[in-house]
Each structure stands twice: as C-alpha cells, then as structure tokens.
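A quick word before the example. In earlier lectures we treated sequence and structure as two separate objects. From today on, think of them as two lines of the same record. Here is Tetratricopeptide repeat protein written that way.
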Amino acid sequence: MRAKITYFALAAALVVYFVLVGSRGVLLIRQGTAITVTFGVAVLVLPLIGVWFLWKTTQFARKADALAAELEAEGGLPVDELKRLPSGRVDRDSADEVFAKRRAETEDSPDDWRCWFRLAVAYHDARDTPRARKAMQRAIALHDGK
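And the structure line, produced from the sequence above:
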C-alpha cells in the first residue's frame, strides 16, 4: 500500500510540474517572436512526453496488479523462499537459485503468462529491473492474447 501511495503522490507532483511547464510554454508562444515561439513549442513537447510516459507506466502497473490478483485467486503466486540478510535485503545467491528455477519453468512453458509473471518477480528479486519489466510485459501480452 505504501508503494501505491508513493506512486500516486509522485504522479500528482509530476502532473503539477507538467502544468507549470506547459503554462510557461504557452507564455513563450504568446510572446510571438520566432525564437520564443520555437522555445515555447519545445517546452510544450516535454510535458507531452512526460504525460505519455506517466500514462504508459500507470497502465503497466494496473495490468501487472490485475495479473497478480488473478494469480493470487488461482493460488499461483510465487512463494517467498528467499533468504534475507540481517539488513532485510535479499541474499544474492538465494535470488539466483530461485531465478534459475523460474527460468527453467518458463523455458518449459514459454506460452504461459503465469510462468512469465513468476520470472518477472524473480528478475526483480535479483535486482534486474529492466529484464523484470520485459518479462512482465511478456506476461501481460500473453494474458491479453497478443
């Protein structure tokens, strides 16, 4: 729950920032000179890219949460079998062992979104965020039939 609150607080802050930057872009365009119009258009592009990125990230998170809820209802969520250090962080060797199991499971059933979901969790536990995101995108695509 803390992660969701943090996400929405940061998203709200970004929206405020996008509005402020966008208003500055409009003010520059209203100046009417060639250079201020050029800068104004360039400044307006940044919030547009930011809004697009925020939208895509939010959609990704919502779809991943929906998959997690569906997998939980089926009783298929991965069990936390990771060893932890005294600091609470995941032991790297333990994460590598679990990852090897999840990778083998996914190789055996490459068209099962559940395997890809569990692989994404294993990537995340191994602190490989880019691959975790790609594996989750694959799970979402397989679930949606794409």
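Notice the following. The CA atoms of residues 44 and 62 lie 27 Å apart. We will return to this example when we discuss secondary structure assignment.
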